Amino acid sequence: MIKHIVCFKLKDNSIENCEKAKEILLSMEGNVPLIRDIRVGIDFLHSERSYDVILEVVLDNAKALEDYQNDPYHCSVVKTHMHAVRESCIAIDYEL
Questions:
Q1: In this structure, what CATH number is given to the domain that contains residue 8?
Q2: pTM
Q3: CA nearest 79: which of 94, 95, 91, 61?
Q4: Residues near 17 by Cβ (< 8 Å), separated by ≥ 6?
Q5: pLDDT tens track for 18-37
Q6: Looking at residue 21, what is its pLDDT?
Q7: Total structural domains in the chain?
Q8: 74: containing domain
Q9: Cβ contact 22:78 at 8 Å
């Protein structure tokens, strides 16, 4: 199993924008069949080093991660929205 984690810092980190990002990210559940588990959280500390939204996805293996990166829904809906609203992001992928 692979865990894919992405932390997003939004251009506008208002609660409304964070909630919208969360909604878009969670919309992958049921629309991206490769996903085995998905969790999305919104930061509440808002410290200088904080990121605003975190995505955690579990996939079967490295091939599933590659396919997930190219999934039509992920690319057309999720990536399009997140690329438009993010200031920056960091990611890590590791084996469970």
A1: 3.30.70.100
A2: 0.95
A3: 91
A4: 10, 85
A5: 999 999 999 999 999 999 99
A6: 98
A7: 1
A8: 2-95
A9: no
